[in-house]
Specification:
With about 375 residues, the chain is α+β, with helices and mostly antiparallel strands. Helix content is about 35%, strand content about 20%. The strands form 4 sheets. It has a 6-stranded mixed beta sheet, with helices on both faces. A 5-stranded antiparallel beta sheet has the order 1-16-13-15-14. Strands 3-6-11-12 form a 4-stranded antiparallel beta sheet. Bound molecules: ligand DP6.
């Protein structure tokens, strides 16, 4: 369960991350493995002492954005980035490697994944299989999100963070946090930030070896809340991976990247000092810079909808009136509104007055990736 309210519901639900295996997930694993292998119960799966490993990871929201790669294949970013893990949202993934399978199998939210998703996961697992010298093994990967995939909340960060942790453990690889973060980066750039806990910095590094994320403060450091305003939208978007490849075609990308160390420093200090005013200004500036690059790339990417702008203006006006809240927008029309926990109800009520805000998800900062079983 996650913090989710709709405009029709007056109830305000606030639930923290679920750090144990949910019954639901147990049933999903049981059913899918039963279908594939004829095994009956989850406890039997655990007692079989197979190579099956389960891990949980949270998605994250970037305050200083990753946009553009200097090496597409290795996902080496054009600039460093800073984020917060979203503790109320999570992906739980079970991986089992077997020698009797002809190909990898991927089930997401109880449905066989489309070929493109399976291909991306298989290519990622190939990196691990090669490292472990176990190229003959194929995997059954079963993944479940506690937030709807169609809600516009990027799931690739939590998905590849959970997969990196479960698959590496299942293959017997002993990786430290930095190595795991580097590995998750190869699946999805932002996934490297979902490995460490709380408030996280991805140092761009000079090469594969030093491009990984580390925690700058634990989740408890600052009671910041992310209210994710989901905007009604039927528009088909260009995904992040395709978007990164276009960043360099914008004449603005070079100056966005050149100024990034300054924004990183300001944002890092604002987080460490819990200085919301500085934080708010730099977070909005960084998001606007990324969207300026998106809008001026060729072809141009225009993710904002009228409701996106309505939220940006409403929150900016409220901040001028003294409310401590600010906005950041990823590769889609939904707006992440950041505020302190004490102001979250007030900010949420404000968002509920905006037409076309369909649903609002709420999350505090969360921990790092965990291997559950
Ligand atoms: C706008 O990490 O989703 O959310 O590496 O292709 O999976 P891939 O891209 P991804 O890009 C995230 C882009 C962003 C900004 C951010 O999270 O930093």
């Amino acid at each position: 369960m996650i913090g989710r309210t709709s405009k029709c519901e007056s109830k305000n639900i606030f639930l923290h991350a679920h750090h144990s295996l949910t019954d639901n997930f147990k049933m999903t694993v049981e059913k899918n493995i039963h279908d594939k292998l004829g095994i009956i119960t989850f406890d039997q799966i655990l007692s079989m002492k197979t190579d099956s490993v389960i891990a949980l990871a949270h998605p994250n929201i970037a305050f200083i954005k990753y946009w553009g790669n200097r090496d597409e294949a290795l996902r080496l970013p054009a600039n460093g980035s800073l984020s917060m893990n979203l503790g109320a949202l999570s992906t739980t993934t079970s991986v089992e490697f077997r020698s009797d399978l002809k190909q990898d199998d991927l089930i997401i939210d109880n449905v066989n994944a489309p070929p493109a998703a399976l291909q991306r996961v298989s290519s990622f697992l190939d990196i691990l299989r090669e490292r472990a010298q176990k190229q003959h093994l194929k995997a059954i990967v079963i993944s479940e999100n506690n937030f709807p995939m169609g809600a516009g909340i990027a799931s690739s960060a939590s998905a590849f963070a959970a997969l990196a942790a479960s698959a590496s453990r299942a293959l017997g690889l002993e990786l430290d946090e930095g190595e795991l973060s580097r590995l998750a980066r190869r699946g999805s750039g932002s996934a490297c930030r979902s490995i460490p806990a709380g408030f996280v910095e991805w140092q761009m590094g000079r090469a594969d070896e030093d491009s990984y994320a580390h925690s700058i403060a634990p989740a408890e450091h600052w009671d910041l809340v992310d209210l994710i305003a989901i905007v009604n939208d039927t528009h088909k978007e260009v995904g992040s991976s395709a978007g990164h490849a276009l960043a360099g075609s914008s004449p603005l990308q070079a100056s966005r990247v050149a100024d990034c160390p300054r924004r990183m420093q300001l944002c890092r200090q604002a987080i460490l000092k819990k200085d919301f005013s500085t934080f708010a200004e730099i977070v909005e500036l960084d998001s606007h810079l990324m969207h300026a690059v998106m809008m001026t790339s060729s072809p141009a990417l225009l993710y904002w909808e009228p409701a996106t702008i309505a939220i940006l203006k409403k929150i900016r006006d409220a901040r001028l009136q003294g409310l401590q809240a600010c906005c950041t927008v990823d590769a889609g029309p939904n707006v992440h509104v950041l505020c302190l926990a004490q102001d979250a109800n007030q900010v949420e009520r404000l968002l509920q007055t905006i037409p076309d805000v369909a649903t609002i998800y709420r999350s505090p900062a969360g921990g790092g990736v965990q291997v559950l079983a």
